[in-house]
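Exercise 7. Predict the joint structure of the components listed below.
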Amino acid sequence: MLEQQLINGLTLGVIYAMIAVGYTMVYGVIELINFAHGEIFMLGAFFCMTFITVFGVPFYLAIFLAMCCCAVCGVLLDIIAYRPLRNSPRLAALITAIGMSIFLQNLALMIWGSRPRPFPKDALPEFFSQTALTFGDVKLTWLQLFIFAVTIAMMVGLNLIITKTKAGTAMRALAQNKQAAALMGINVNRIISFTFILGSSMGAVAGVLVSVFYNTMYPMMGYTAGVKAFAAAVLGGIGSVPGAMIGGVILGVAEALGAGYVSSLYRDGVAYAIMIAVILFRPSGILGRLVGDKA
Amino acid sequence: MSRGNLIKLAAAAILLTFPMTGFASDYLLHVLTLIMVYMVLAMGLNIVPGFCGLLDLGFVGFYGIGAYTAGLLTINYGLSMWMLVPLAALNGAVWGILLGAPTLRLTGDYFAIVTFGFSELVVLFLTNEIWLTRGPLGLPGIEPASIDLSWLSTMINPDWDWYYEFYGETPYFYLAIAMVLGVYFMMRRLEDSRLGRAWYAIREDPLAAASSGINILNYKVIAFAISAGIGALAGCFFARWTLFLSPDMFKFWESFLVLCMVVLGGLGNINGALVGATVLIALGEVLRGVLPTLGLPAETRFMAYGLIMVLIMRFRPAGFIPKIADASLKNPIIIKLKRELKAKGALS
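Solution:
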């Protein structure tokens, strides 16, 4: 029982970690809580479903296409909504982010309807639902293994991009000091767009994985998932990419254990409670540097 | 009499006689009352982001606490509306202090997120504690407000009817006017008090405020408690007016809507909050009527809200009636000084 809960929590946790990375990168670079990131995650699931059902695209290609679409959405979001407000009060930018979140949510509601939809099962590889490994009572499905494999691959890839490539170095420079980075000849807007591309495409993959894992998607799913991912980012230390990964995993496990042993009704409450507690007692999070005073 | 006062007097006369005219349908009265409820909410929220410069995303939590306090006390203990008004406001203020005291030392986004988490927890509590709130089924059977003066009847005239029940939209319309006026005058007094000036000082420059001896945290907690109390007061009225409550009524969306009103009107501006509430609720009703005739679904209404908010932030980040942030700018001595400096070319 405990082990099974742990495995389920870990599966959710790595997905939260993927969304949290998107939050934390954007926060690190432009110091904005991108409230609309949860909606990008939701759009990822819906794009993937649409590609499969309407255009008959195979599953793996559909994921890739959904990533591309969400990357475009993320960049557009930045250019249309956030870029004009770069030098405005932070309050204005934050309200814009909430406004975009509500706009996208209702846009999806209009396009795809409010009823939850199942993920197109026929498109999935058949072995997904079969049990891959058993340890005693604990069962691990191929789907869960797939989720672990994809997330680990993406995390490793992301870390390589951030630490080894020129664009990644520029991103880190920007997070340290925007003016100094600009003086060094970094094209600030291009690097911010790059950040949105990375974050949004990871969010899209997370959206697809969640909708496959729960076999459901609905336009409001970005809201709770977004809040939890944000809580994960705060827990790990907002602005820190490895922190977001650790935070996501911890949050997923805490939520599964909380739902199993405390009360399943307060499943979502665990995330909020952890978030509030962390902000109160250690605002910089597990791995973060303190950026609260910049606000 | 100044022009501003004349406008106010005319508006008051129109409002007071409105229910007696032929235009007044139940629907119109309902919408006007709704606007007034949101006016009170907007004025209450305005204190925190407007006067103190802190983003509060959890305001709807206090609104919900006030509404459920009123609803539960009246169902379980049969308390009258007039007892509930102070009780609900007090309960809201107490929760404001409980949340504010530890969190108000946080700055910027962190404070916004904590308040957001708080309001989500309130909704979860209202949804899940079924033994207390009946959960998602909602809370029906709240008594309407009434005035019972039967204790006077023995002294004056036992034959008169000393009991009046608020039935239909018209009495609540008048009650809402009274509530808006009460809160409005309280806000006006607050704005010009030592307290209000301290808030402005904190908003404009916390460091300077602290070094001139203002205890920032205390003043912020007071602001938060008053704001929460006003939110709960509006909730109390709302419970007694709609006679039904459900947790869905107090979701994050409401906080955002009220925040939109405050920002639309101009942060920190009391009249702005009134204008913002009127514009956004009226806009919502107009869109509700217009959209179906254009063949558009209801969701476009919320899309429009989101988009309007983005556009306002883009083109008028300070709102439609921006507040002159620094009260000293209105000071004649300073105006004269500035003019002299400008003439000398020292001030651009």
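Discussion. Residues 33 and 173 of chain B are 5 Å apart (CA to CA).
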